[in-house]
Structures are given as C-alpha cells and as structure tokens.
Design goal:
single chain, alpha/beta, six-stranded parallel sheet, 35% helix, elongated
Length: 365
C-alpha cells in the first residue's frame, strides 16, 4: 500500500556491523524502509564487520571511524545537519546515545522511537548495579517518545519497568529473514549435531551449552556455535578442559546459518537475557526444535508448546541436559514448521513514524 504522506526522513545509528542480532535486524528494517520510499540516514561508529555487505543502496551512510563514545558525541551535530523527522534507536544498548541526543537538542530533538531488543527486568544483575539500572529505565520517558516492543509480553514489561504510558508503546515484530536455504553456510558437522547461533559474549552464556554437551547421553553428538565475539578465548579454553575439541566447533560468524539450522537436531540458546530471539523464530520456521533458557518474557510466547521445544530455568544445568537428551532421542518427531511473523512490519513502522511526525507538527501550531 502506498502512503499518502511524504517520505519520512529516518536517522538510525549503531557502533559497528560486527554481526549482532540488533544490527542484523536494523539493516533488515533499513532495507524495508528504503524499499518503501523512505529516506534513511545510517550513522555508524565504524562501518566495519561482516554485515557491511548488507547495507542497502539508497542509504545515506555516515562512517565516523570512532568508538561508541565518539559516536554518541557526534550524534547531536549530525542530527542538526540531517534534520530527520524520526530518530530510531535500534536496541537497549544504544539508549544512552538517545538520552544524550535528547539532552543536547532539547525541544529541537526529533521524536525518538526506541526498540526494546532485550528483556528489561534483569534478574542477573546485583546491587548496586541493579538499583542504578532500574533508575535509568525510569528515566526513559524523559527522552524516548515511543517504544516498539516485539511481543505483547515485552510491551507490558516496558510499561511496568519504564513507566512510559501504554499509548506510547507499539507491538511490532521484527520483519522475517529471507535468506535462501541453498546459500553458502559453514558445512554441517558429520552426524547428529546441536546448533547455537549468536555472538560469543557473556550475555549468551555458551559455556552452559558446552558444559551440557559433556553431560548428554549420546556421546557422539556434536555442537556447532555460529558467531564471533570477545568470549571466544574463554570458550576455547573450556572446550579444551572438558576434552571436547572433537565435539564442539566454533567456525565464526555466518551470513546465512539457515541450511545448518535446518539440519540440526535442535537449536540451543542458553542466554542470561534476551528480547524476542529471531533465531528461535527462524528455527521453528524450519521445523527445528528449540532448547532455550527462560531468558525473556517473550520466550514462552514463541515456544508455546512442548512439541516445539523445551524451556528450562536459566541456572539449572540438570534441566538443560535433560532437555537436550529429550530432543536427541533417535526418531523424536520434529515440530511442524511455523511461518515467521512480521510480514507487514515495515508498513506498520512507516505508519507509526508518519503518525508521530504529524503529531509533532500539530503540537507546534
């Protein structure tokens, strides 16, 4: 459907394109907005990383060649120059940049739309960090004009944790990925294997998956984790200590994990916290069962039946091993494929942006 409005000038930002889920989705959204006729400026601290090849044509790219703090410091000046109608904050990690932007520009700041990319109710934090974090969340209504949550449960959590008005929260799922099953991918390991997909970071807690592999009944099962990050050295050391070098592979980031995901016995996700993990949607769309920690209020919205997978407590290694053993039983039926949501997400985002722009203009008369 063609919009009767003029194109919306959208500015979004990220530190780099190293392969994180937030940045992958941001690029998917940007491509959709450009295809829908919107004008998009993308500000990057550094235009580096494997996802740079996915920057769509038609985007105004600002490559600052700096770190996160440098990107934050430059953002107000760039917004003044570009004069966007909307600033889109792609995930929780970048909300500090949105806060700084609002502080610097005040009433001249365009409406800021922030997507909730990870759970807000963090039970993994301890005093005094937990108290400071809760205060920070309560400050969000002062600089965020509208929040986009990816599921109803996440929208309710956003209202509860930030205090933002429910009318200023929308539920819009991420647009689905369209990677073909025959595109290049790391070759699957021989025999039965489990697969993990995501950054090698502390949040993802791949150490849990590796430790669980050592405890499963089927000792010929292997584990392949597709991703890259700062925890690689720690994980490689753990693999060596447990004597799992022949059973665990860390081949790095993959631009298209779908073929390997389709052939895996199960997707494993062992994070401390998540938002609405797109990789779970991708797995279920391929008929691959899921074993995941209860790392977000959205997890049980996605894995809504025991026929689709197993949800285990975040810190229960015995439950994790038992769930893996369940899905490794030879002949265990796989779930029926579930189509990914979000086919109309681009249109819904554009409609939201148009409404916010119109509201801003009317408020200034």
């Amino acid at each position: 459907m063609l919009s009767p409005y003029a194109p919306v000038r959208i500015l979004t930002f990220a530190q780099s394109l190293q392969g994180g889920g937030v940045e992958r989705v941001m690029l998917r959204l940007v491509r959709g907005w450009v295809d829908a006729g919107q004008r998009v400026t993308m500000v990057l601290g550094r235009a580096s990383g494997p996802l740079t090849a996915e920057i769509p044509d038609g985007v105004e790219l600002v490559d600052l060649g700096t770190n996160h703090l440098g990107m934050m410091a430059s953002l107000p000046g760039i917004v003044r120059r570009v004069a966007p109608d909307i600033v889109f904050c792609p995930g929780n990690h970048y909300s500090s940049a949105a806060g700084w932007l609002k502080l610097c520009l005040g009433r001249d700041c365009p409406p800021i739309v922030a997507k909730v990319s990870n759970r807000l109710d963090r039970d993994d934090q301890r005093f005094p960090l937990a108290q400071g974090y809760k205060l920070w969340l309560r400050a969000h209504p002062g600089f965020i004009d509208h929040i986009v949550a990816m599921s109803p449960a996440m929208a309710s959590e956003a209202v509860r944790m930030t205090g933002i008005a429910a009318d200023n929260v929308s539920v819009i799922p991420n647009p689905p990925s369209h990677q073909p099953l025959d595109a290049p991918t790391p070759p699957p390991t021989a025999g039965d294997y489990l697969i993990g997909i995501g950054r090698l970071s502390q949040q993802k807690r791949w150490d849990r998956a590796i430790a669980a592999l050592a405890g499963v009944e089927r000792r010929d099962t292997q584990l392949m984790i597709l991703g890259e990050g700062e925890a690689r050295g720690t994980l490689e050391n753990q693999i060596g200590v447990l004597g799992l070098r022949e059973r665990v592979r860390l081949p790095g980031y993959s631009t298209n994990p779908r073929p390997a995901l389709a052939q895996a016995r199960a997707l494993v996700l062992t994070s401390d916290f998540e938002g609405v993990p797109g990789v779970i949607h991708e797995a279920l769309a391929l008929g691959t069962p899921v074993v995941t920690t209860d790392s977000s209020v959205a997890i049980r919205e996605i894995v809504s039946s025991p026929h689709q997978g197993s949800v285990v407590p975040t810190n229960d290694p015995h439950a994790l091993v038992a769930a893996l053993d369940h899905w490794l039983v030879p002949g265990r039926p796989r779930p029926d494929p579930i189509p990914e949501r979000g086919g109309d997400s681009i249109e819904r985002y554009v409609r939201l942006f148009e409404e916010l722009v119109l509201d801003r203009r009317l408020s200034r008369f």
